Amino acid sequence: MKLLFIIILLLLTGTNPLFADEDEFANSVSAKLVSDVSSVKPGETFSLGVLFEVQPDWHIYWKNPGDSGLPTSFNLDLPEGFKVGDTQWPLPIKFISNEVSINYGYENTLLLWTKVKAPEKLNTIMPLVIKGAANWVSCREICIPGESELSLKLNSVYKFKSNEGELFSTWSKKLPLENDNLGTVLSYKIDQKTVKEKKEHIITINWKSDVEDIEFFPNPESALSIEELAYEHNEKEGKSKIFLTTSVFKGQKLTTNVLDSLIVFSNSPENRKGIEFPIKLNL
């Protein structure tokens, strides 16, 4: 289904009724390049990211968009010597379209960012101009591809925090815990069996603290198909089960037997926490 979605986007024309009046929806998302500092020192590590503002009733996508859509992304054009880390993805939410399709993403606002390390030799007299670009697909009743050229000037002469410092602090609290902490949160076992060319998996989780509800967000590599995904939670017993069926797309090969995923757990709708959950499967 993702391939079909991509083809539709590539064939996008003004006469396509699914994408009619594209200009009317051009402002469904805005993007702005932000940093947690306004001044960069030689050898300093700082944060750079893109703040997406999403209009009401619209949404954009996580790194695995789900059954359709495309991942939200950004890239940075940095001067020579700067080193860029991995993109930081806050906890997504689930969207159900047409009562069938399941998608993962964000609404209202989203900050995607990365850590950047400045070179030890850095000209602190001239302003530091950083350029970049952001790409997304926003959806409501229709879907609109969007992009924005970005620019930000940081000047190391002025040594004060930017007004985005609090923004990064707020969004950092929405990141999942790294999988090094998995053993302090839960324990699990996997039951697997092969049915024809597909593998059926049941992942049983035992929680180490009270959990009212769970959500599961898989992020498979491109060669792996996930079907019949379902999960259930027994709050009284402190257990959850995740059910999924996997198969390899025809003509493709897997590069890993680990399914990257994210499990989100909560004690209330306002208190969502998540942890990276890499699952070793018999694929």
Explain how this protein is built.
The chain is mainly beta. It folds into two domains: 171 residues, Sandwich (Immunoglobulin-like); 102 residues, Immunoglobulin-like. 7% of the residues lie in helices and 48% in strands. The chain contains three helices and 19 strands. Strands 1-2-8-5 form a four-stranded antiparallel β-sheet. The chain has a four-stranded antiparallel β-sheet with strand order 11-12-15-14. A hairpin with a 3-residue loop joins strand 9 and strand 10. The longest helix has 9 residues. The two termini are 22 Å apart.
* Fraction of residues in H or I helices: under 10%
Number of domains: 2
Return the structural class.
Answer: mainly beta
Radius of gyration: 21 Å
The string of secondary-structure elements, in order, is HEEEEEEEEEEHHEEEEEEEEE
Poorly predicted segments: 1-20
- Which outline best applies? globular
The CATH top-level class label of the largest domain: Mainly Beta
Which CATH-level-2 architecture of the largest domain? Sandwich
Strand content: over 45%
